[in-house]
Design goal:
Elements: H1 2-37, E1 42-43, E2 46-47, H2 56-76, H3 83-95, H4 106-109, H5 112-121, H6 132-149, H7 155-174, H8 194-217, H9 223-249, H10 270-294, H11 297-316
Antiparallel strand pairs: 1-2
Length: 330
């Protein structure tokens, strides 16, 4: 009898311990499951804020937009009016999504008393005015900024920024600033992708046509213009040879030059020769603008540099300045 009671008590105790163990295991399992399903970003029941990804295009637009806004203010406070240059800069601001305020009129921006005081004293109202040199420096800084930002943006925005830099270079040149000219590409550092290779083939074809055109127009020039044409002719030959080497090193066959090219108009004198040179450079700028969009990194930077150089050469040959060199759609 005693043995039976003891057995029953021991069995009950074992069942109770089993149930407790099972309950503890279940509780631990539940806690573990809850812990594993909880987001690693939670802390003390609250979600940790995730960093908002920064869109490179948005950031680039903001930085370039801020620089343009500052430069516009400089034009509005310029010692000498440059309405056409300011309009070009404002057009670039609009293309980049920057709100550009209209330039203040003299009557609206200068109170009558200040104007009278300035007339009497012979000094400008409103403090120190921006000089052409400071505006040119601002345009050069915009060239540098756009050239940096286009390396990290989308292809379409990179093309726009490269053109914006070229337009800024033209304005800086008109203001008396000096920007370095681009030389020939270095075949050793350019390793084109398939898209870049296609762009370089197009660039090679454009350079071949340009070399031919300079060979024709140079005969109609003399003196300084002829020296300039000779220099540009040699530069384009070097660029053509560099592109030929890049394409060959990539294992592709460079497109052969045509025996002759049809000119858009007859070149019979110095005036038509200068007009052809400007046209050739503007067409070349468009080809390099497309190359910017086709490539990345060093390839993109080199194409943007060539676009800017072509825009400056076009200006030197008498082409009208434009806010967007190389972008015929604008």
């Amino acid at each position: 009898m005693l043995y039976a009671v003891t057995s029953l008590l021991m069995a009950a105790s074992l069942r109770r311990r089993s149930l407790l163990s099972a309950g503890l295991f279940a509780a631990l399992t539940t806690l573990t499951a809850c812990g594993s399903s909880a987001s690693p970003t939670t802390h003390a029941g609250r979600a940790r804020p995730r960093p908002t990804p920064v869109d490179p295009d948005t950031a680039a637009r903001q930085r370039v937009g801020a620089a343009i806004t500052t430069l516009l203010a400089g034009y509005d406070n310029a010692a000498h009016p440059h309405a056409e240059l300011r309009r070009g800069l404002a057009a670039q601001a609009t293309a980049l999504g920057v709100t550009a305020s209209a330039p203040p009129s003299a009557a609206a921006s200068t109170p009558a008393s200040a104007s009278a005081s300035a007339s009497a004293s012979g000094s400008p109202a409103g403090g120190v005015l921006a000089s052409d040199a400071s505006l040119a420096s601002g345009e050069t800084a915009l060239v540098t900024l756009c050239s940096t930002e286009l390396l990290v943006t989308s292809p379409a925005l990179a093309r726009l920024l490269a053109s914006t830099a070229a337009g800024a270079a033209q304005r800086g040149s008109q203001l008396g600033g000096h920007l370095p000219q681009a030389g020939a590409a270095s075949p050793g550092r350019l390793r084109p992708s398939a898209a870049e290779l296609d762009a370089w083939q197009a660039s090679l074809a454009a350079e071949e046509a340009t070399v031919y055109g300079y060979g024709v127009l140079g005969a109609q020039l003399s003196g300084g213009p002829r020296s300039q044409a000779t220099s540009d002719y040699q530069l384009h030959r070097e660029r053509r040879d560099a592109l030929d080497a890049v394409i060959t090193s990539a294992g592709a066959a460079p497109h052969a030059a045509a025996a002759a090219y049809a000119l858009p108009f007859q070149v019979t004198d110095a005036s038509s020769a200068r007009r052809l040179a400007a046209l050739l450079e503007n067409r070349l700028a468009a080809v390099y603008a497309n190359a910017v969009q086709a490539g990345t990194d060093d390839f993109r930077a080199d194409a943007a540099t060539q676009l800017r150089a072509a825009a400056l050469r076009a200006l030197s040959w008498g082409a009208a300045p434009t806010p967007f060199p190389g972008l015929p759609e604008r």
